[in-house]
Structures are given as C-alpha cells and as structure tokens.
Amino acid sequence: MAEGRAELLEQAPAAVSVERVSKAFRLPHQRYSTLKERALHPFASSTYDVLQALDDVSFDVRAGEFFGIVGRNGSGKSTMLKCLAGIYSVDEGEIAVNGRLSPFIELGVGFNPELTARDNVMINAIMLGLTRKQARERFDDIIAFAELEEFVDLKLKNYSSGMSIRLGFSTAIQVDADIVLVDEVLAVGDAAFQAKCFGEFERLRREGRTILFVTHDMGTVERFCDRVMLLERGEVVDIGQPRPIAQQYAELNFGRASAARAQVSADGPAAVRITAAWCEDETGERALAVDQGSSCRACFDVEFDRAVDQPLFAITFRNDVRHTIFVATSAQHGPQEPFAAGERATVCFEFPNWLAPTRYTLTPSVSEGVPPQELIRADDLTALIVESGMATGSVVDVPTALEVIRR
Question: Residue 170 and residue 143: Cα distance in Å, rounded?
C-alpha cells in the first residue's frame, strides 16, 4: 500500500514549489524604543548583524503529500512556513503555491485578543477562503472540535494558550484548504488534544490534502510523512524517506557521539545500531496514543555490527518535563542470549499502562557486560501519548484495592 501511494505521489503535480529561496534578518546593535531616544542619540551606531535564516532552499511538494520539515531550533523551519504563508517576503528565489492554503503557524497570528472566539472564528474562516454562509454553517463544528462551547463569547485575551491553540487548529482544518501548513505549536497542547489532532491528520491524509508539517517528534514524522526535509542553519541537508532523515536529525541534534552513544573500536564500526522505535496498543497495532489501564508494548529494532555476548536492552520513559518516569530493562528478565555480527532483532517490552495522562518520549538503549557498558542510545526516538478521563496529578496511577472500615 505504501508503494502504491508513493507511485501516485510521483505522478501528482506539484502543490508547492520552492526554488532557491533565501531570507535574512537584520539584527541592529542599537535598538530604539521611542522617538525621544533616537533624537537624543542621533549619531549612535546604526550597525547590525545579518541572520541568514534561509539560504538557497529548493524543494517540491506533490499534491496529496504529507511533507515533514525537521531541524534543530534556529534551522529555519518556521521561517520557511511563514514565507510559504506570505507572512514573510523572500529576499531571493521564488515560491509557487497551487491551491487554497490554510496556515496554522504561530499562536495568536490572525487572532484579535479584544474580540470573542465567535468573532475571531468568523473573521479567520472568511480570510481563509470561506464565504460568510459557509463560515456560519461550520461555526458549530469548529467550536465543538475545540471543545470551547462554554467560552465562545469570551474575549481571546482571557483564553489560556491551550484554548487559543485548540481554536486556531480547529479553524484551520475546517476551511477545506488544499494545502495545510502546521507548525510545532501543537506540542504546547495537552495530550488529549494532540491525539485528536493526529486523528485529523489521518483524515486529511486519506482525503488527499497536502500537508507541510514542522515538528521535533520523529515518531510523528515516521508515522505520517511521505518525505522529510532536514534543515540546518537555513540550508537543506537532505530530503528523503522519514527513517534515514530521522537518524540524521538525531546525529545533528545531539552530536554523533551523544545521539548514538556508539562504542567505536579500532577493530571496526559501531557494535550496535538502533534503527526504529514505536509503541503498540493491546491489539498489536502501532499507536501514538493509548488508553490508561490498557496493555501496551514499547518496541525497537536493533542491528548488530559485531558480536555482543551479554546484551542488555532498555527503554527509558520521560514525561513532558523531562523527568524519568520508569525504565523497562531486560535485566529484570535474566541474561539474554548472545548475538553474532550481522544479526537483527526486535525488542519489545509489554506492560500494563498505568502512566499518568500526558506525552512521553522513549529512549531505547543497548548495553553489554557486567557491569553494563552502554553501546548505543537513541534519545527520544519515539513518543507515546497516554489518554485518560481522570487526572490525579501523579506521575503514575497505580491500581489499588479500596476497603473502608467504619469504627
């Protein structure tokens, strides 16, 4: 099925074409906040630094393609989306967009904080291409998806950041745009809303919409994206399939030594490579979100480039504030069989999911010997969202038996 989709995308026309685009910003050494300051210091230095946000960037996105854009902070990802949306003009190059475009790029862009949610939705829906009649017909669906029925007549300046995100995303996906731009602001939303957004991504993908998606989450990239572009300091490092681009991103983000933590000897290459990681729900299907209380499996693929006699496998779960919640380790299950050079394995840890509802990042690792020496670690290689109708505020919700004895 994936091969058939790839063939269809190759034959599809370009929905977005970017050719040799460059964008720079001037950062003045001396800033004036008032006219008085400028009058008092007329001969102050007017020098500035130049920040090259994008440098000779070229790529095409086919109609119906889910195209990811990844890179470290400051690599030019969000600047690229803003150039596509027309928020920034480009210094050099050309951008061609074929179809109606709906941007969900930055919290608050296009919203007036002095207006109510009702007024902002109507104004933005019309600005994004709907008629007044269409905007009125879809208003209830927009508010319902954002779960803001009780706050529809509240001014946006009184909204929390999460409420504003829900409203913005809900408006952007309801305008039937051919091309949707989504920035990493989704990471600010709570776990339940992220899962809801992922469901919308699935729908948009099935409907053949073109999506350009900026994110740091490599699990999301591998699940949704057909191709991915990696940016570094405003330049294109590579464009290709999700898995190899995710590996390159890890090397850039953490440095080759710390991202892979590969033990390289004079005898040859690294001992082990971790090529993929994912989670499965209780039916065995790969999932980004699972229900609290259900059975869950965390898995990763390993390739051995040399013999490892005493392997130790582990996956570290960290929550959204980077606290280590628990570590699943093969040490609890006794010594593992040795692996020869060239062998591969899929390692899975199954556990009853009593994690608190939030988003977790998973870091698989492989060690060797006693005491164990780490051979490889792939930081934050995938993510898992835990959903629950009740939040206690704890990091885990361990099931308990209750007995109340009156005295």
Answer: 7
Q: Alpha carbon of 44 to those of 25, 30, 325: distances in Å?
A: 21, 8, 54
User: Which residue's entry shows tokens 């409907």?
Assistant: 207
By mean pLDDT, which of 72-86, 123-137, 267-281 is the weakest?
A: 267-281
User: Side chain identity at 319, as an amino acid letter?
Assistant: N
Q: Which domains does the chain have, with CATH numbers?
A: 2-29+45-251 (3.40.50.300), 263-387 (2.70.50.60)
Kind of pairing, strands 235-240 and 227-232? Answer: antiparallel
Tokens of 281: 């729900």
Q: Calculate the alpha carbon distances from 267 to 83, 305, 323, 384, 397 in Å.
A: 49, 11, 37, 38, 48
What is the per-residue pLDDT for 343? 94
| Model pLDDT for residues 5-40, shown as the tens digit of each residue | 878 888 889 999 999 999 998 877 666 666 666 666
CA-to-CA dists, residue 42 to 31, 37, 255, 404, angstroms: 12, 8, 46, 78
Q: What is the pLDDT of residue 108?
A: 54
